[in-house]
Hints:
The chain is mainly alpha-helical. It has a two-stranded antiparallel ribbon. Helix 6 packs antiparallel against helix 7 and helix 7 crosses helix 9. The N terminus is likely disordered.
Amino acid sequence: xxxxxxxxxxxxxxxxxxxxxxxxxxxxxxxxxxxxxxxxxxxxxxxxxxxxxxxxxxxxxxxxxxxxxxxxxxxxxxxxxxxxxxxxxxxxxxxxxxxxxxxxxxxxxxxxxxxxxxxxxxxxxxxxxxxxxxxxxxxxxxxxxxxxxxxxxxxxxxxxxxxxxxxxxxxxxxxxxxxxxxxxxxxxxxxxxxxxxxxxxxxxxxxxxxxxxxxxxxxxxxxxxxxxxxxxxxxxxxxxxxxxxxxxxx
Length: 250
């Protein structure tokens, strides 16, 4: 009875919360390994319960919240849909992205390795390890490359089951790409550290800190440019040999 009494006002508030307005997840909601998608669900751009994300809603959410171009939004939706265990699925849930060594990978910036326990939710200790390498108030290609490298190195040294598939490697670079080109400025490939810390730790868009979405649509080519720059600036890990893990995207 006490739990129901506490939960009911939260349910009503969540249901009435306008599109784009932040409201923390409820105990009945689902979230996953992706801080950005969790954040968009918390703002109602995506379904607030984190379930049944379809193509049209996802493309619209990524455009409205982040100004991602439709073709990029479609690519990201189709990638997420592949995490649904139903091969004919036309939707996915956020927690379906948690499958180990698919989108989720060892050496995450803000999640602990699956070997050590719960791996899908924000881990403050892991995030502190990363941000120790964010040595400027403005993050750039080399700084995020350093943060990524230390996480991979720490994981490699401490996790006896450490692995990084080809697709895991690609997504580990891509999540750093998003920091600079989506949260930050795609033209300068920089981002204020305070925006990144706020989004990762609170899973809330940092409007209160002055953040605004890009005024110019963000394309796949924009992300590829930053991706290649981060990859070139990173000494470790080396790209893994082809292992067929990317075949799922073909």
